[in-house]
Amino acid sequence: MQAVVLVAGKGTRMAKDYDGPKHLLPIAGKPLIEHALDQLPDEIGELIFVVGGPHEQAIRDYFRDNEYSGKPITFVVQEEQLGLAHAFKSAKNLIKGRWLGMVGDDVFGPRGMQELVKHDLAVLASRVEHPETFGVLVADNDGYLVRAMEKPPEFVSDLVWNGAMVMDERFLELDVPPSDRGEYETPDVWMKLIEEDDAKIRVVEADFWLPINDKEQLEEAEKVLTK
């Protein structure tokens, strides 16, 4: 099974305090991205890194051996920064069958990631106090996704997407219009899958998750992971 790992982008908020890609900032003795990669389930045998933006070369240089923990790495470039769905689709020509997609700059727990790959289609989620800054999810009584939206202005649910999912090739084939932000949003693709293809997408609640978007979250992660 392949994992598509997003390591493109500018890291605008983190750039206020640190130089270089936030994926390589150290937390508890190793770069942030290694914390994410180390939680990948055993089913993952190949890595596809989606790179791009001002820090592309730094990522390529760090992984110059084109492998991590014995898993080969293939690089693909997201030519424009047009949202996460667009980034995942940059790997379309390399993906075969079911695949795991994840952002490379958050810290995940192992049990949630392991549960994720047990389902044909699934998204990883957590409950948070301020869901308005994330992709918000609503699940039915059986734990399947029924509604998803990116950064809704009004409260819908405290359940949000963690940035990890298991999808198949249908995700890559569907076209959605850009949002008001001018980006192609992952929740819009899920909803189209459900509405047009009658897809059943399982919502898996994570055992652990630390989003890392700014200096404060980085420092908090350092405290949590060095206890």
Give your account of this protein's structure.
The chain has helices at 12-15, 32-37, 56-62, 84-89, 110-116, 169-173, 186-197, 215-225, and strands at residues 2-6, 26-27, 30-31, 46-51, 67-68, 71-77, 99-103, 106-108, 122-127, 135-139, 145-150, 159-167, 202-205, 209-211. It has one domain: Spore Coat Polysaccharide Biosynthesis Protein SpsA, Chain A (Alpha-Beta Complex). It is of the alpha/beta class and 227 residues long. The protein is built from 8 helices and 14 strands. Helix content is 26%, strand content 29%. It is globular, with a radius of gyration of 16 Å. The chain has an 8-stranded mixed sheet. It has a two-stranded antiparallel sheet with strand order 2-3. The chain has a two-stranded antiparallel sheet with strand order 8-14.
In short:
The protein has 227 residues and is of the alpha/beta class. It has helices spanning 12-15, 32-37, 56-62, 84-89, 110-116, 169-173, 186-197, 215-225; strands at 2-6, 26-27, 30-31, 46-51, 67-68, 71-77, 99-103, 106-108, 122-127, 135-139, 145-150, 159-167, 202-205, 209-211.
Shape field: globular
Largest sheet: 8 strands, mixed
Structural class: alpha/beta
Name given to the CATH homologous superfamily: Spore Coat Polysaccharide Biosynthesis Protein SpsA, Chain A
Count of distinct strands: 14
Q: Mean pLDDT, nearest integer? A: 93
Strand content: 25-35%
Topology:
Layout: E1 2-6, H1 12-15, E2 26-27, E3 30-31, H2 32-37, E4 46-51, H3 56-62, E5 67-68, E6 71-77, H4 84-89, E7 99-103, E8 106-108, H5 110-116, E9 122-127, E10 135-139, E11 145-150, E12 159-167, H6 169-173, H7 186-197, E13 202-205, E14 209-211, H8 215-225
Parallel strand pairs: 1-4, 1-7, 4-6, 9-13
Antiparallel strand pairs: 2-3, 5-6, 7-12, 8-14, 9-12, 10-11
